[in-house]
Prior knowledge:
The chain is an alpha/beta fold and about 300 residues long. It is about 25% helix and about 25% strand. The strands form three sheets. Strands 5-2-1-6-7-8-9 form a seven-stranded mixed sheet. The longest helix is centred in the middle third of the chain and has 25 residues.
Amino acid sequence: MKIVFMGTPKFAVPSLKILVDNNYIIPFVVTVPDKEKGRGLKKQFSDVKLFALENNLPVLQPEKLKNPEFLKTLHDANPDLIVIIAFRMLPKEVYAFPRLGSVNVHASYLPEYRGAAPINRAIINGEKETGLTTFFLEDKADTGNIILQQKVEILEKDNAGTLHDKLSVLGAELLLKSLKLIETGKYELKVQDDSLATKAPKIFKEDCLIDWKKPSEVIHNQIRGLSPYPAAFTHMNGKVLKIFKSCNTVLKSSLEPGKILIDGKKLFVNTGDNLLELLEIQLEGKKRIPSGEFLNGIDKNLLTMFE
């Protein structure tokens, strides 16, 4: 089977690797244009491009997917299928062209958590379970007919980073199973029930600011769901303090939400109900460190309130 692969971030790499390892013909890989970053405006490649180059796969980086030159290259390659993972919306001229259509791997149990941030939103909402879905692309995002699904437990110790890595590997395995079914033609599609759909919109800065008046469990899940990136944050003495790891307690808050309590090398903060222990933090301009180490290096008289 000849497959054009489209993707950008680290999440997509295991799926591209599994195609290579299983000897699928990949005429080229499509990813985003290079970004210029840093003082020297050095070009930064996407994770998918880096993997493709390491494995001698041709890479295309069109600014627009409706570009006539790109469409001609796609038509000349005449792929049987397009696989798209964490890329962008495809125009119909692209996704409908291959004879077998275009397949997406989505990091949720669709129709739950349709959108750009299903992993973050599931943890932020305190879900105990999420999943993976392979489906055929249609015009509206994440609405196509389902090929295969797999439920995945969200562990209490999981954050967005660990769940991302777990789902990226399992997603590649589910993609391979889906491709085997498509090759044989022995599969039954499941139509999504739109009435059960929930949304997982992109994460914005306002999603990351902690409101200490909320219950500790809600704040704890917010921290987990945004760790390690972009990270939940608060303000301390006019500086941004990112929080990467926390721990719930059964100790009732006795002070105003946001008030800090120090017990030896432990750092607690009052919330809307219980005290929340902060375990890993990063003050603006400093490195990420355990809270005990943070307490050793700061005047504790300055630690009074998070805002």
